[in-house]
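Dear support,

Our group has been running a series of protein-ligand predictions, and this particular one with magnesium ion is the one our PI (initials K.S.) wants archived with full inputs and outputs. We had some confusion internally about which version of the output was final, so please treat the block below as the authoritative record. The input we submitted was:
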Amino acid sequence: DRVTVSVIKADVGSVGGHARPHPLMMQKCVERLKDGVRAGTVDDFYVTRVGDDINLYLTHTRGENNKDVHGLCWDAFMDATKVAKEMKLYAAGQDLLTDAFSGNIRGAGPGAAEMEFKERGAEPIVFFMADKTEPSSYSFPLCKVFMDPFTTTGLVIDPRAHEGFKFEIVDVIDSKKVIMSTPEETYDILTLLGDTTRYAIKRIWSKSDDIGIGAVVSTEKLNISAGKYVGKDDPVCICRAQSGLPAVGEHLQPYMFPALVAGWMRGSHYGAWYPCSVADSDPVFFDGPPRICAVGMHVSNGKFQGLEDPNSPVGVHEPLDYFAGSCWDEARRSAVKASMYMRRHGPFMPAVLGPEEMEYTTRPAVLSKLKERMEKLE
Ligand code: F6R
Ligand code: MG
Ligand code: MG
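Confirmed final output from the archive:
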């Protein structure tokens, strides 16, 4: 009676520059995943997107990193790539970095967030999807949600949330991880996570023994898996909610502040994180600003349940689109304002990232051109 929820995502090409996958690409994914259900590889699926990234949501009972589940998604992305190439769409096949799939999409280009848990009486889940930014962008909102009592009143007044959480923190540069505990290690945790160039949250578990996993982020660093920068990850984050975990509204609240995150144009700028509906997730201002979508569904008896009829055909779902409503207009306006402010710095820091984080650079070429003219200071 354990269920696995996987979100596997990739940018395999889009219309209008790095903007939106073609509907036929999404359709190809739907067809593949339908086959996957027929073959018994997965139990249910939902195909959506954020900006130029296709997101495959799956439920199954095969656990994390399953070869067949990952293989199914790989094949879906291959099919979508084929369609994108035929139409000569932009960056077709971008995130499929290897020709020979070796059983796991990790390190092969796509991103994955997967969690296995025992289904509770009701299992509300918030799926966050970001475009034009990196995994560590989730650290700030997740810290607020799971650590900050001024954000999550549940930490104070819900007895199980009050017990605290365990954080798995990864060092994306040295490929290390450590598990730390809140509230007692809060300050130590922030010492690491404040450095978003190096540390990111991978998982969060409840410390109450009847709950398990609370959140998981896709942390594959494309730049490292490809051996060079090929794009920020455009990460996803799955959060279970309610009954001892942060409530849905507690999970969403931090996004009312449009934090500056790394990514945006050429993966090389800081921009304000713009909360939006899936329909509004096309990057339209300077290839952004970085987008964040949040959609909600339940996992019910191993399948997704949204607003659709429970008897609708497999793969047909209608999640709540949390950031669609006018309540978030205020945050959107601030995000655009803050992003315009950043743009006024042109190619100067802190509008652009530090040199190690830039996705594009001409500096080595310029320096080598200047080699003869460069003099030692007195
Ligand atoms: C950022 C992104 C875009 C591109 C930009 C230039 O993640 O995908 O901002 O970096 O449009 O793209 P190229 O180098 O393909 O011309
Ligand atoms: Mg892209
Ligand atoms: Mg993208």
